[in-house]
Amino acid sequence: MSAARIILLMGVTGAGKTTIGRRLAAELGWPYFEADDFHSAANRDKMGRGIALDDADRAPWLAAIRARMDDCLTAEQSAVFTCSALKEKYRDVLLTGAPGVKLVFLTADIATIQARVYQRKQHFMKAGMVKSQFDALEVPRSALTLDARQTPEAIVTAIRKSLV
User: Fold this and answer.
1) Is the pLDDT of residue 48 over 50?
2) Is 40 helix (H, G, I), strand (E, B) or coil?
3) Rounded-to-integer distance, Cα 148 and Cα 112, Å
4) What domains, with CATH codes, occur in the chain?
5) Alpha carbon distance 164, 160 (integer Å)
6) What are 108-155's pLDDT values in tens digits?
7) Cβ–Cβ under 8 Å, residues 127 and 114
8) Is 143 in contact with 104 (CB distance < 8 Å)?
9) Who is most buried in 54, 72, 73, 134, counting CB within 10 A?
């Protein structure tokens, strides 16, 4: 079995996955993979028009993320990934048969998330889509769950402590 580890940060848009992911990867010296980079142009366009993705839209996106995770594990390369992974069936695609993957759920109330998303500039995910993310969210049964309202430093410290 590989000694490689993958940290998969999940949560609704605006939970801080990118901020935490970049910071955690930098501190650990691991590569960072942003889920948004795996979206097709069609998915980006759809979200940019304020239309929520459906399961058919998400399937190739999830498969691409999982393929990259598998590549890392096969190469024995630890890494940090982000993915909203809102539904259990999405997490099944990402986690089933993938030893060494630690799921971290960043959670916050809808008001906090809406405020964060409204402040974003140049992002394809529109603030009006926040409710659809909360509606789709199935809270994971097995994950390190952290309050996304904490400082990035506190969240990264908690994740790093959980790795020992």
Assistant:
1) yes
2) coil
3) 9
4) 6-162 (3.40.50.300)
5) 7
6) 999 889 887 876 555 445 456 778 889 989 999 999 999 999 999 999
7) yes
8) yes
9) 72
